[in-house]
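Quick one, probably user error.
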């Protein structure tokens, strides 16, 4: 164990890093997408999935123009729509540290495009508590949209992937396509061995997925700071460490016994 501790002293030096946003642009059919995140994280993939659904929605509404989506990971919480004065295209802007709700965003897009002629989009129209749930949106998200592969920095899931459908993320084995896990939303997913992966549901809760009906849930004693980002340090097939990007505290995960030890460093004090 002492050898592991010495090794970690070096490995964790670069985990507390300076904040630098990652901005990426994509074009998906008639949808232009700009994402800005605190790091390479799953909000990028979710935004791409949103764009794919937005394309299907546009076609279903027989809307003949392009739209723009801006999804920013920011504590400046706001969501609104407006018409770009340069090209006349409708823009949808979201800034939030919370996880992207794909279905809710699609309902907002549906509402704006359906009522474009009635609304004054020359100035930002702020998204309120939109209670309408469009049947068309439910039909659109009945299609499977699989985890995108455009961003190489997010290639962190071994032997598994996921798709979004019916307001849930469905995780499955790449070989055999067997479903092993389902959740309505999550912040991060990381492989911790060839056959185990961890799904971070938020800053405090995560699930260790070891196969069908082999899911172990954990609640951390202390909620970690936002933005959501954990680092995984794989030791071997039996152990790994979890560290939040902004803290030096380590969580030891025993993959064999499915137990965790928080504040691992304290054992050496």
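Nope, works fine. Designed sequence:
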């Amino acid at each position: 164990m002492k050898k592991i501790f010495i090794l970690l002293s070096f490995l964790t030096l670069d985990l507390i890093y300076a904040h630098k946003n990652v901005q990426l642009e994509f074009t998906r059919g008639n949808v232009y997408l700009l994402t800005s995140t605190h790091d390479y994280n799953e909000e990028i993939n979710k935004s791409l999935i949103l764009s794919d659904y937005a394309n299907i929605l546009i076609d279903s509404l027989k809307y003949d123009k392009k739209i723009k989506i801006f999804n920013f990971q920011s504590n400046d919480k706001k969501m609104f729509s407006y018409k770009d004065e340069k090209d006349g295209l409708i823009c949808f802007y979201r800034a939030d540290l919370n996880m992207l709700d794909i279905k809710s965003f699609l309902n907002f897009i549906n509402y704006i495009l359906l009522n474009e002629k009635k609304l004054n989009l020359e100035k930002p129209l702020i998204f309120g508590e939109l209670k309408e749930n469009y049947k068309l949106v439910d039909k659109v998200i009945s299609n499977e949209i699989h985890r995108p592969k455009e961003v190489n920095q997010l290639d962190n899931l071994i032997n598994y992937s996921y798709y979004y459908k019916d307001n849930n993320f469905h995780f499955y084995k790449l070989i055999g396509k067997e479903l092993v896990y389902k959740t309505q939303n999550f912040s991060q997913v990381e492989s911790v061995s060839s056959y185990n992966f961890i799904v971070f549901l938020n800053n405090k809760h995560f699930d260790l997925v070891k196969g069908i009906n082999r899911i172990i849930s954990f609640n951390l004693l202390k909620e970690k700071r936002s933005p959501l980002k954990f680092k995984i340090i794989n030791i071997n097939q039996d152990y790994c460490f979890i560290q939040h990007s902004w803290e030096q505290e380590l969580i030891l995960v025993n993959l064999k016994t499915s137990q965790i030890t928080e504040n691992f460093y304290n054992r050496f004090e």
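The chain has two domains: 2-16+156-268, 22-140.
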